[in-house]
Amino acid sequence: MIYGCAGDSGSDIDMPVSSTVQEIASELLAEDSTEVTWDLGVFESWRNLSQVCVNPRNNENYNDRLGTVAHENNWIRSYSDDTYLWYQELPDIDPRIVPTTSEYFELMKTDSLSESGAPKDKYHFTEDTETWNDYFQRGANVGYGMRLASSTESGEAYRLFVLYSEPQSPAAIASLKRGTEIISINNEAVSGGLSQSMYDSLFPGEVGEENSFEVILRGSDQSQELNITSSEIVITPVQKVSIFDHGGATVGYLLFNQHIASAEKYLVEAIEVFKDSSIDHLILDMRYNGGGYLRIASQLAYMIAGQPAINRVFDRSTFNDKHPFLNPITQERIDDGTFLTTTQGMSLTAGDPLPALDLEKVYVLSTDQTCSASEALINGLRGIDIEVVLIGGATCGKPYGFYGIDNCGTTYLTIQIKGTNAKGFGDFSDGFIPSQTNVPLSASVGGCAAIDSIFGEPLGQRGEPLLSTALHYIDNEACPDSQTIHKKQKTSLRIKSGVGDREQESKWAVKLL
């Protein structure tokens, strides 16, 4: 299961469907070898409808059969009705009258709003199955290996910056470090916003695409032009593990960016280093961690807490009211979601005991890109009374999860689960918010609001604003005088894409089982 953030991806399709769409649907139906029928409120099992495809895959891994768009839409309809968390709020639309699967899937989500007025479902999306599997299983995608942020200050020119680069990636080799500004792409100025051609150059779909970037490197005031070629990027989910003395205490710092399968090995190795060093405090930097596998979050949470987490609930999953006892995807009994205390075979041999730090408190660095599985880690620890001190900005607000299920080469991700901790709390749809006071069973978490500035010291350096604030809190159990606590802290630079991904509002920020 996946816990994460998909970004707003609304599609406005007016009903009734236009005559043009009706004509297209009639053509599709005329080509059907097996007619798709539709009866209002009657749904066939989605398992019986799967892999009947417009373009069947011809390989041993799939048993695709030839079908039409209507067949694929019919699968989406039944799958949504059975597994969508808010299925009662879905329209029942004839799968034959919507001409594409992407349009039909967009209709299969609620249009209700949360208490704050935001869309209730902001995390409804699809991805090419091969691309999806490469990212979450191998941590691989195509690109330059840089994560970007854009300026959203109103009235100012559009500006594009590098948040960080993956080690040994084309971006890293070209010295595109945190704080580098991209001025133009293939001689087209960024200041006016991204054109489609610039967008395509920033987020290449194939290995070997060369593009020209005019940049101002960090620490320089002069621009220079660089030609960079895309390659396969293998993500390093843990980019920095360090230990330093601070006021007589030993502090561990962990920069953790993705809950992907390979993170299991990186995290175990990091915790072993911290354990061998007998650290007194842990600063967990998840400011850009949009989520991923819940199993990874559960393992890390146990490794932080140790003994108090054994046999306790980490994240209890609740599906829609059609499935109170059995998981609708796996058909297994829904368990309590206890903390995982052993390796899970994701990138280490399964069944080995995990090391543990037995800490009573952890300092988490956050922004509005801290999402889903990262939030589940915060919530799970708070559920067993491990103190979480939140430093930075409010998190994204996603107490929901889903499975990535393939049909005809597309992986569909639709909200299916709400997660709660051992205390039954999971109401943080507007994010966890750093607050001067910690309020149990609420989204207010004790800590300090602080700005994530890409122009300060590099990540992991003591003078970097969020880390510096955490160290001050360790010393004083209070925020620096210069910090002002805000109800909802946003940075002046809004992240627009993941490392090497297409621009997608951190679409792959997810919570997966």
Short structural description:
With 513 residues, this protein is α/β, with parallel strands linked by helices.
Describe this structure in words.
Helix content is 21%, strand content 24%. With 513 residues, the chain is of the alpha/beta class. Strands 6, 7, 8, 9, 10, 11 and 26 form a 7-stranded antiparallel β-sheet that branches. A 7-stranded mixed β-sheet has the order 13-14-15-18-19-25-24, sandwiched between helices. Strand 10 (210-216) and strand 11 (223-229) form a beta hairpin. The longest helix is centred in the first third of the chain and has 15 residues, at 69-83. The N and C termini lie close together (2 Å). The model is unreliable at 5-33 and 483-511 (pLDDT under 50).
How many strands in all?
27
Q: What is the second-level CATH architecture of the largest domain?
A: Alpha-Beta Complex
How many domains in all? 3
Query: Would you tell me the overall average pLDDT?
Result: 88
Instruction: Fill in the CATH topology of the largest domain.
Output: 2-enoyl-CoA Hydratase, Chain A, domain 1
Shape, principal axes of CA atoms: globular
Amino-to-carboxy terminus distance: 2 Å
- The multimeric state of the shown protein is single chain
CATH class of the largest domain: Alpha Beta
- Major β-sheet, in short? 7 strands, antiparallel
Contiguous runs where pLDDT drops below 50 for at least 5 residues = 5-33, 483-511
Indicate the radius of gyration in whole angstroms.
23 Å
- Helix/strand-derived category reads alpha/beta
Q: How big a fraction of the residues is strand? A: 15-25%
Residues in helices, as a percent range? 10-25%
Question: What is the CATH homology-level superfamily of the largest domain?
Answer: 2-enoyl-CoA Hydratase, Chain A, domain 1
Q: Give the count of helical stretches.
A: 11
